[in-house]
Design goal:
single chain, 60 residues, 2 helices, 72% helix, mainly alpha
């Protein structure tokens, strides 16, 4: 009987470790995604105007 209890405890502790590792991994990946989104999303001030996009020449 003690062997079965040891296996059960071992399996439970393994599950707990896996849950914890997955939770931490998810937190890290979400933080990385937020950082990438902030870096890829320039503010309105940084965006060029339509005139600047075509070389600074305004219509003609």
């Amino acid at each position: 009987m003690t062997e079965d209890n040891d296996k059960t405890r071992s399996a439970e502790s393994r599950q707990d470790r896996l849950k914890s590792a997955l939770r931490e991994n998810l937190k890290r990946r979400k933080a990385q995604a937020r950082e990438r989104a902030e870096a890829a999303d320039p503010s309105q001030e940084d965006e060029p105007t339509p005139d600047q996009e075509i070389g600074g020449k305004a219509g003609g």
